[in-house]
Amino acid sequence: MSAGLDGIIAADTVLSHVDGAAGRLVLRGLDVERAAQSLDFEGMTALLWQGFHPLGGRPDDLRAAIGQARGRVAARLPALLPAISGLSAVEALRLLLASLPDGDAAGDAVMVVAAMPVFIAALDRRARGLAPVAPDVGAGHAADFLRMMTGVDPDPALARALDTYLVTVSDHGLNASTFAARIVASTRAGMVSSIVAGLCALKGPLHGGAPGPVLDMLDAVGDAAAAPAWIAAELAAGRRLMGFGHRIYRVRDPRAEVLKRAVRSLSSPRILLAEQVEQAALTALSRHRPDRPLETNVEFYTALLLDAVGLRRDLFTPVFAMGRVAGWTAHVMEQEATGRLMRPASRYVGPLAA
Ligand code: ACO
């Protein structure tokens, strides 16, 4: 028995393969580097949905359907937004998603994918005292999200970088949030319920909640010369360095490299400091745990990329969900196709009645 279920196979999947020893991620047959180069978010979603959804393998039709669904979801906003007052961004997204009805899986898959940018842009604007901006149903998903956030057409380079990010994080084996979504799907609770479960799991700092703290760390370090001492003090205090380590990867997370390249193309002002902090952290971690390779994970350069795109830190986890929902929906449909309820066993270690 392993408390973290390490190495336990709980599903067969055609969706993605994480090779932790080789540092390789394959998304439906494509290495993540190639997927990020050749597909936009809608194209990646169509690929993931192939064989599970009527619009799978039809990127243009799926792009149109998602655009139209953004319009339908936006029509719900006036009734929903008052309820999110006082909630953090990820809590607000959880509430807004949970307000959607569970209907038929195919329609709901398009709806939850479309809902993410509409909800995230609206909750962010509300936090800034601004009214929502209506979606442009003919625009690309990433570009329309940035337009709904700011009210103006985005710089194409920023939209492209965000698209690269969404594709890069679209799926990643049986991670905690995908597993949570599949467990709920196996009970036949429906697509929306399964996706809400996925988001709840993603919210934690050990999973999708790390990129905001990565920027906090860079702020706290301040300049590269201070990095070694700051990092040593954190490790000595028993704290973890955000953006490093992974349950599966024993080498560098391949997504970190894809995102680093995308951040470089935006000439982020933080990139130099980030690279120097990364080097100092890797040196310190190799001394701290010589027995356990701890390398850069996806969250480190996610933080830099989303910051360079112009997003506030508390939107990082919601925007992660906006990408990962492609994989969650595909896994839900794959799980539903098995028709099998997930019901593992526990080992009782408590007392028995005398
Ligand atoms: N900084 C310092 N020490 C670390 C770190 C880190 N980032 N990561 C792991 N360690 C240490 C742990 O303290 C652990 O020692 P312990 O058991 O004595 O406490 C040891 O290395 C072994 O850890 P693992 O078993 O390999 O780690 P686990 O699989 O439990 O955790 C995780 C993986 C949660 C990602 C961890 O590395 C971590 O907390 N990283 C920081 C948070 C983070 O970056 N999260 C985003 C992950 S990526 C994603 O989910 C999309």
UniProtKB/TrEMBL annotation:
This is Citrate synthase. Pathway: Carbohydrate metabolism; tricarboxylic acid cycle; isocitrate from oxaloacetate: step 1/2. CDD domains: BsCS-I_like. InterPro entries: Citrate_synth-like_lrg_a-sub (IPR016142), Citrate_synth-like_sm_a-sub (IPR016143), Citrate_synthase (IPR002020), Citrate_synthase_AS (IPR019810), Citrate_synthase_bac-typ (IPR024176), Citrate_synthase_sf (IPR036969). It catalyses: oxaloacetate + acetyl-CoA + H2O = citrate + CoA + H(+). It comes from Niveispirillum lacus. PROSITE patterns: CITRATE_SYNTHASE. Belongs to the citrate synthase family.
